[in-house]
Amino acid sequence: MLPRMVFDFIDGGSGSEATLLENRTALDRIRLVPSAPIDVSTRTQSVNLFGKSYSMPLIIGPTGLAAITWPKAELLLAAAAGQAGIPYVMSTAASARMEDVASAGSGSKWFQLYPFRDRAITQNILRRADDLGFDVVEITVDNPIPGTRLRDNRNGFSVPFVWTLPKLASVAAHPGWAMKMLKAGAPRMELVSEAFGQQEAPTIAAVLQQQLDPAISWDYIKTLRDLWPRALVVKGMLDPSQVRHAISAGVDGIVISNHGGRQLDGAVSSIEMLPEFVAESGGRLTLLIDSGFRTGTDIAKALAMGAHAVQIGRPTLFASATGGQPAIERALSLLRNELDIAQALMGVRSMSEFTPRMVRL
Length: 361
Ligand SMILES: Cc1cc2nc3c(=O)[nH]c(=O)nc-3n(C[C@H](O)[C@H](O)[C@H](O)COP(=O)(O)O)c2cc1C
What we know:
Number of strands: 12
Radius of gyration: 20 Å
Distance between the termini: 37 Å
Bound molecules: flavin mononucleotide
CATH topology: TIM Barrel
């Protein structure tokens, strides 16, 4: 369905991909403890995050260059999320303009910020996100420099595409994808191109590396906090000892994440660290989590262990690749249905009834 270099860009992790694998292994190790009999004839998945109500504890997380899966994929992801009653997080590295994402569909749009070395540009983007009505900003902190994506290096995956014979052969073997890209034009990182001009670099990671600010610290998060009027989330935390800094910087929530195994190879899984974050935050932060979540029972495990919602990256990208918006909607409804079955079988009527006694590590 996708040429090798595109599949690998999405599917791959960093280095030996030990963390990519660990994300699944750690979730699979956890066992659920169902309670019965409990009357579960009435069930709801709705949750409240940062003052807004959503239909389930799921968020489509930020992924750069999503239109590599399907033309205008960011807009389709946003519309499908809106349809499902959940938030969509637009990436700084998106292949769509902020204005177009902001007006796609009727749902809640969040914005993921990669702070740039040029702080005036970063602050200008924040201001635009505010003017456009994005509800939440997630600042990604686990990417001061990019991880080593060996699959991208091997495949010579770059923006803009540089065509070599093996790449052309792989694309020719996927005419459906090739036709869509030819018609829509090769995707580019719109916001990055707008801010800095079209970037020429051997890999996507290299493009970002040229511009990303490796000097972000809690002081700078505090500065951005003061500029952003609505909920502020820090994405990419794995060390619970940083929680007190997040709280004193005035952050509202965090995403416990290893970036889907794409940054520090060998990093711990986010689900393993969740209980320590719950203990450290003592109810003062909204706890979101991502990296490896694929099923309704995965979501149930995170909720039972104290997360408020789960973000996903690859599942909805691969859904997009199989059929655009209807396929993304189908993926979301499968996840909702799996969560509904999981909660019914566990004796859980509403998301607030999940408790730690429902899991065995
Ligand atoms: C293709 C791809 C692009 C991504 N781009 C971004 C990005 O631009 N900003 C960001 O904060 N995270 C990015 N991520 C990380 C995701 O937001 C998320 O942390 C990760 O995908 C979650 O793991 P999962 O894919 O196993 O669900 C990206 C992930 C993928 C797979």
